[in-house]
Amino acid sequence: MLFTKNDREKILQIIPHMDYTPALSPFVTSEGVLSACEDTKKYGFATVDVYPTWVKLAAETMKGYPSGILVTIGFPHGSTVTEAKVAETRKVLEDGATEIDMVINIARMLDGDYEYVKQDIAAVVATAKEFGRGVKVILEVGYLTDEQKIKACELAMEAGAEYVKTCTGFGPGKATLHDVSLMKSVVGDRGKVKASGGVASLEDQWAFLECGAERVAARENIMEQLKQLGIDGVER
């Protein structure tokens, strides 16, 4: 079912769950970061997502607004050594990030080195906790079998992560209802799920939230759809 202007109340329920991602395009400059921040202020998205190099700019721009600043560590393949992930986490939090996503070490996961994967996550989680922040762990499900997805969720929970997340959006996979349901069935009440990667519409977002996700990715196409439906910002 496609949303219409009559679904305004339902759409307004989705907006606070959105992590807004247009500034993650590799060619986005400071101007694009500022634009993403302004959109986030206007709509009250959960977060604006930026690269580490733009955290200070985003933090200054978002000062006084409740939306968070999200940064992904080890982006996009997760194969950075743990020490580098820890250093990157600490730096972006010092610069003003309020939420941390991290990419699981995909290569080690596929190699079956589960202890390394867990300790890698745990090190980032411990660093984020020093700043009172949680961590979302990106599984990059397009590379994994269902059995590996289940194992990755278990490792993330054992390592103290707050969320598990489907994809970066830069790999071969995308968020599906199957994967969100599977991941939620594993983490249960211990953790939360974020749907990211190929989330193409407000209708997709609503379906993922109904399926158990707590956060959903939002690209420029979501902004276009909001405007088409007559929602040009949200009063708070």
Please give a handful of descriptors for the protein shown:
236 residues; alpha/beta; eight-stranded parallel beta barrel; 45% helix; 14% strand
Condensed summary:
The protein has helices at residues 8-14, 30-43, 55-61, 82-95, 106-110, 114-130, 146-158, 177-187, 202-210, 220-228; strands spanning 18-20, 47-49, 68-73, 99-103, 135-138, 163-165, 192-195, 215-218. The chain has 236 residues and is an alpha/beta fold.
Radius of gyration: 17 Å
Low-confidence stretches: none
Strand content: 5-15%
Spell the H/E element sequence. Answer: HEHEHEHEHHEHEHEHEH
Outline the fold blueprint:
Blueprint: H1 8-14, E1 18-20, H2 30-43, E2 47-49, H3 55-61, E3 68-73, H4 82-95, E4 99-103, H5 106-110, H6 114-130, E5 135-138, H7 146-158, E6 163-165, H8 177-187, E7 192-195, H9 202-210, E8 215-218, H10 220-228
Parallel strand pairs: 1-2, 1-8, 2-3, 3-4, 4-5, 5-6, 6-7, 7-8
Helix pairs in contact: 4-6, 6-7, 7-8
